[in-house]
Amino acid sequence: MKLIAWDFDGTLVDSRPLIEAGMAHALDALGQPRSVMDEWLKYVGLPVEVGIRNAFDPLGLDGDTVLKAYRSFGHVENEHMLRPFEGIPELLEELRTRGQRMGVATSKRTVPLMRQMARFGWESFFDPIITPDDVTHGKPHPETLELMQTRTGLGPEDILMVGDTPFDLDMAKAAGVPSLAVGHGFYAQEALAACSPRAYAPDTAALRDILLAWGV
Fold first, then answer.
1. What 3-state class would DSSP assign to 156?
2. Distance (Å, rounded) from C-alpha 151 to C-alpha 130?
3. Cα–Cα distance measured from residue 99 to residue 3, given in angstroms and rounded to the nearest whole number
4. Could you give the CA distance from residue 54 to residue 42 in angstroms, rounded to a whole number?
5. Residues 90, 29 within the same domain
6. What is the predicted pLDDT for the residue at 39?
7. Of 1, 3, 6, the residue nearest 113 (C-alpha)
8. Is the same domain home to 103 and 191?
9. Whether residues 91 and 179 fall in one domain
10. Is 198 in contact with 161 (CB distance < 8 Å)?
11. Last residue of a domain, which of 26, 46, 71?
12. 31 and 9 fall within a common domain
């Protein structure tokens, strides 16, 4: 593969503690039971505005109100809760040393993404970086990967999408891009297998083995 397109949250970085803390804050502020969070977690991986509407509008809660409460949480002050998954920093450095080109295709907005990448010293690792700020349609629409092709001049067969959600994999399928599912994120293997990834990696060690076996 000429380019690995990485998802960020749930694939490179364990953001579950921060995401859950933000939603717990929102639900408490709105007087809602925290059990409602289970419905929200079904949509993690979509742009946050879309995921919140999908989760809470059917429950009779105004999505914009939930979003405002969610964003009132001190996400920036609590970014220490974010951690790269075990072995990911070493894998990224190894791939970069090998000359492997890497990009990011994420549902996270540009400003927090770049701030968090700087926290881990990853600013120079990825090009291009495509966020919801760059497209009209977020995941699972193929626009993110189509824009990545436009910016790089690569064909879909030259890109490998690596992600932890069905939204990543469905985006790849719609764009004609092969995908690799990782199991250390938000979704179970069964949900990912239904999206027909080329392979499944339960952890970073397996992910490295697969990538190297494919000659990246």
1. helix
2. 10
3. 10
4. 9
5. no
6. 87
7. 6
8. yes
9. yes
10. no
11. 71
12. no
User: Which residues are marked as active site?
Assistant: 7
Closest C-alpha to 73, from 13, 20, 111, 16: 20
Whether residue 189 has pLDDT greater than 90:
yes
pLDDT, tens digit, for every residue of 161-180?
Answer: 999 999 999 999 999 999 99
Looking at this protein, which amino acid is placed at residue 173?
K
Question: For the whole prediction, is pTM greater than 0.90?
Answer: yes
Domain of residue 25, residue span = 16-71
* Residue 102 · residue 4 · CB < 8 Å: yes
Q: How many CB atoms lie within 10 A of CB 81?
A: 16
Any idea which residue has 């995908």 for tokens?
179
Contact 190, 197 (CB under 8 A): no
Q: 216 pLDDT band (50/70/90 cuts)?
A: confident
Tokens of 51: 């995921």
Question: Is 135 found in the same domain as 51?
Answer: no
End residue of a domain, out of 71, 101, 118: 71
Can you give the CATH number for the domain in which 194 is found? 3.40.50.1000
Count of domains observed in the chain: 2
Q: How confident is the model at residue 136 (pLDDT cuts 50, 70, 90)?
A: very high
Same domain, 199 and 119: yes
Distance CA(71)–CA(207), nearest Å, equals 33
| Mean pLDDT taken over the chain | 95
N-term to C-term CA, the chain: 6
- Does a structural domain hold residue 78? no
